[in-house]
Records
---
Amino acid sequence: MIGKTLLALAAMAPLLFGSPSPASAQKVIKAGLTLPQKTAGFDHVNGMYETFKEEVEAATKGALKVELVYGGALGNPNDRLNQMRRGIIQMSDASEGNYATIYPDIQVLSMPYLFPSEQVAWKAFDGPFGAAMAEDIRAKTGVRVLGWWEAGGFRHFSANKPVRSPKDFVGLKMRALGPVFAKPVEAMGGSASPIAFNELYTSLKTGVVDGQDNATNVFRLVKLYEVQKYLILTGHIYSFGPLGMNDAFYRGLTPDEQKAVSAAAAKAVAYNRETSRKGEGVALEFVKSQGVTVITLTPEARGEFARATQGPVREWLRGQVSSPRVIDDALAAVEKAK
């Protein structure tokens, strides 16, 4: 009697509970992002992931869903990077400085004055050198690099006094988060302090540090124009980020899903680069309108900055990377991309 009852219940299960939903087979790509949704002036990052989401979900007809978690709700960038490595989340907008904590070789791409323009940087990233580094990152960290995005373009120094040559840095206290960003400051006679991003505005306002370096849109985003009088267009380091995904998750996708993810990543990076270029110009005009004096360096002055910083940073890097050849390969890739 009991057996007949169980059989009857099994037969009625679809009617009682419904047939298995297609959503139950849906795969979710969770991406942790730093900034709140619709942050003005930062569409090149959030918009890149939103483009990726739209493209993936359309191409897979919803079999793959992309969940974007904004505003640092999943932790700081280093936390999210490690969550991605462990497969807790599948993607994160961690940038080059964060990746340096798990893959030191990436620091060669932050050598001062390595790239003469954004376009040359893109060619190097999209060419054989970028592909080889992406594969090395995958093999050593478990993160698959789907592309290389621009984090606002070149970094520029700001200060509360005019800076036009390396000697003007002597005695300045500069915020620099990460050793590869601190070395150029130290090479010019300044001191570097690793102040957290959320403490930067207050530290500048109270004089804990005299200046900092970031892309122009970051300068605008956190209202540094309120606490810095001068923005010096040194363009000394190019800011970027790997568009990373947990490799085990990617390998678990079907071939068609992998194709959709890769195609969506290419469109997202293209969107990022175009939007970043437009946004930098808008941000620069805005900070000028707020009373910041923007100093454009002469070619001779840029040469002075390059000579003061390149040698010391390259020498330091030789003790940080897996092989000095990584530095030589990066330099050769840039020459080929020019």
Note: Residues 187 and 312 are 7 Å apart (CA to CA).
---
Amino acid sequence: MKSIDQYARLVVRVGVNLRKGQTLVVSSPIECAEFARSVQKEAYEAGAREVVFRWSDEKSARVTYDMAPDEIFDESPEWLKVFLDGYSDGNAAFVSIAASDPELMKGVDPKRISRKNKANNVALEHYRSRLMSNRNAWCVASVPTEAWARKVFPGKPGPEAMEALWDAIAKTVRVDQNDPVAAWRAHQAALNARLAFLNGHAFKALRYRNAAGTDLTIALPAGHVWFGGGDDIVGAAEPYAFVANMPTEEVFTMPHRDGADGKIVSTMPLNYNGNLVEDFWFRLERGVVVDFGAGKGVEVLKEMLDTDEGARRLGEVALVPYESPISKMGILFYNTLFDENASCHFALGKAYPTCIAGGPEMSKEELLAAGVNDSLIHVDFMVGSKDLEIIGVMADGSEVPVFKHGNFAL
């Protein structure tokens, strides 16, 4: 990439849109320290009160999963809850750098990973709820690691693979353009046109069909709201927008937790906790996954679905044209942050309360009554294809084409 600093500026100034005097919490793998420090410098230039780091090391995590006593996987350290709850309650902004070896955890007992994730998610429910309700600005971005780059570009030596992945990431986040901030504003305008179409129609259901085997109808709850690109902070004295994912090509909302019927077939592998799940599918009845299968990683899939009751229900529906800029690159990133922006996708698990009118102010009971799914997980998986057709069903039963031949019909 020509300028790591320019990318860091985009994450700080557009991603979390950092306010003067605000604290920034940066979560990063140790392999991405150079970029994390660039984010730190840019944040201070933007007027940050403090920049705090939370480092991770997936190689040492692998050693823990292989060698640690079994009981620790049902525990979450108290310091982590205090750390994240404290900073989120103090209105800090959060940058997470997502970069991992897609197969580092291959061979690890999937039950250990599932139990550890569940323990952490239970402990961090308050923090996760604040972010998913847009009470804190947050942004997920990514930079290459060598293991990841070698997986994406297996025919290239390590340094060449790293350079190729840097170049690919630069294009996806528009840092390769002369004025990345202006490019993002133009991109937001295009997303806004799609949002106007979807929110204006207020569909009661969407029907999916493609040759891969997806044949599904999902109900959308009354009062659902579509979002895309930037989101507005909830509850701030002076409202401002942030971009939660860089890159982002999607527009998304929530399905009704009881309203999915039919079969969904994945069109890309899923990297879940360092394990690849490939060629998988789900069959749903009244919103619940009642059957599933996978060509690879079926035990990983089972552990994910068994996390809790809400893990077997859909929490997000997202639309991405087959001819999105990322899809046109023809690269399988093995990283959901990128692959989900090359394909229409769903998420199993927790829904974003912001995707229903008044959601951030609703109690858990009110959200459930409105059809909003809750879970300890939120896992995106891809279903888009060149021949995907999506029909929107209006309240009066009339039908409106939403997708034709994999792309928006509007």
Note: The first helix runs from residue 4 to 15.
